[in-house]
Design brief:
By secondary structure, the protein is mainly β. It contains 2 helices and 44 strands. The strands form 11 sheets. It has a 5-stranded antiparallel β-sheet with strand order 3-8-9-10-11.
């Protein structure tokens, strides 16, 4: 059996998924594995490209997220490392305030909650009146749902493209955005003009090479900016093209890579295929074991590991073999020997990694590139450093620390969970509203100051799916 949430294969007799912590029942167990790559072991790469179903922020997420966040407390922490698509060397940044604004949900306690936007000072810049929202894109526009219809607003909250669509996605790197009308997806330009008629069952934004992933029925292919198929719908699943011109496709029950002409760069042969790192190697899974391939699809390191991560920019990957974790370089040499019961990949800046040397004590610390402790194992849970700060849990509760292990900010004991700090310097804290019994959220900056005195029923969904550390 397989977990329907994360896709990992389940041991016999378990009542909780050992990977994501969800309580198992008939409705969330699958007899066959999901085609998508499971986040098994310590593999932390996420999907290759913007998902075919984007993350929208609606009142429904408020009801969904609360039990989910409680469930992930079973494993104490969930780490989701946002990585780029195949052949893209640099992972996108995780920010809270896109274009200076972030979505927040507002409730008056009587009507359905609505979404608006606040700035970094906590000011409500755009009044909460939307059913669903997205983060602002680089062009300063955000797709929002108003009275059941989708359109696009500017940073003043004014509609620049009227809400007339059944669904919509933000504009991509090119000036087209996917929109849904009459049950099908097409594309509009930034003036709202229809440039590709609605005809697809699913659609993604255009990649840099001018191709967009679309779905017809249960097959996926790629179109150009005229709406003409360059690669016919033929794949059981697929991802958008990366910056170097490759796309991951799922065919014949396996993952492979194609180029912009639809030619196989790497034949479908892997159970999971993760983004190429800066050293030119990609993590793959085959028959339950993990290894690394080069851009020709040739094994640089054979699949001999029980679990593994992609290589970081410091040239190290964390791997598990014979029940122990260590760190290897691209030559398959152990830079840090296998001596940890649990371990995470290095922080994005390559400075340190969270490790647990003894699962019985359950204490976590941080090591440098040479395996030397920079913070001794003293925490009962520890997250990855970002922006110089990590979320950890000690004997007294949740706390943010710097790379010297010094306390930066300790939330009130009523705090239920904390997120990673974002790369633009913010964290989200969750509390229980004593009056309503509902979970509410507050935003803090790196000085430990609340951005606003208001507690919101929900904030940016993309950040709440980032690292979560429970009370």
């Amino acid at each position: 059996m397989y977990c329907a949430l994360c896709g990992v294969q389940l041991p016999e007799g378990v009542t909780y998924c050992p990977n994501c912590g969800i309580e198992l029942c008939e409705d969330n167990m699958l007899r066959d594995p999901k085609p998508k790559q499971p986040l098994g072991g310590i593999v932390t790469a996420s999907s290759y490209a913007p998902p075919k179903r984007k993350r929208k922020l609606s009142a429904g997420h408020f009801l969904f997220m609360i039990p989910l966040l409680i469930l992930v407390g079973f494993v104490s922490m969930v780490v989701i490392m946002f990585t780029a698509d195949p052949a893209t060397e640099v992972a996108p940044t995780v920010e809270l305030f896109h274009a200076g604004l972030t979505p927040v949900m507002v409730s008056d306690g009587e009507n359905d909650p609505l979404w608006g936007y606040i700035n970094r000072d906590g000011d409500e810049v755009i009044t909460a009146k939307f059913d669903e929202v997205t983060d602002f894109g680089d062009n300063g526009l955000a797709a929002v749902c108003y009275l059941g219809q989708w359109g696009f607003i500017n940073k003043n909250g004014d509609f620049v493209i009227e809400p007339v669509y059944e669904d919509a996605q933000n504009f991509g790197e090119n000036d087209y955005a996917p929109v849904k009308a009459n049950g099908s997806w097409g594309y509009i330009d930034e003036k709202g003009a229809l440039v590709i008629n609605p005809q697809f069952d699913s659609a993604c934004t255009f990649a840099k090479n001018g191709l967009a992933l679309v779905g017809i029925g249960d097959k996926y292919g790629y179109i150009n900016r005229k709406g003409v198929y360059v690669i016919a719908p033929q794949y059981d699943d697929a991802e958008s093209f990366g910056a170097s011109g490759y796309a991951a496709i799922y065919a014949f029950g396996k993952w492979g890579l194609i180029d912009k002409n639809g030619e196989y760069v790497i034949n479908p042969q892997f159970d999971a295929l993760y983004p190429f790192a800066s050293n030119g190697l990609a993590l793959v899974e085959k028959d339950g074991a993990y290894g690394y391939i080069d851009r020709m699809g040739v094994y640089a390191i054979q699949p001999v590991f029980e679990a593994a991560s992609s290589f970081g920019d410091n040239g190290l990957a964390v791997v598990k073999k014979d029940g122990k974790y260590g760190y290897i370089d691209a030559s398959f040499s152990y830079v840090i020997e296998e001596r940890f019961d649990m371990a995470y990949p290095f922080a994005a800046d390559g400075s340190c990694a969270a490790v647990c040397p003894d699962a019985e004590t359950g204490l976590w610390g941080y090591i440098d590139y040479y395996g030397k402790y920079v913070i001794e194992p003293t925490y009962t849970a520890a997250g990855t450093f970002r922006n110089g700060i990590a979320a950890v849990k000690d004997a007294e509760g949740l706390v943010y620390v710097d790379k010297q292990g010094e306390e930066v900010y300790r939330p009130d004991t009523e705090c239920l969970f904390i997120t990673h700090f974002t790369e633009d310097g913010y964290g989200i804290l969750a509390f229980l509203d004593q009056a309503t019994g509902n979970m509410v959220f507050r935003v803090i900056n790196k000085k430990g100051k609340f951005v606003t005195e208001t507690a919101y029923p929900m904030v940016s969904f993309s950040i709440l799916t980032d690292l979560i550390l429970t009370k």
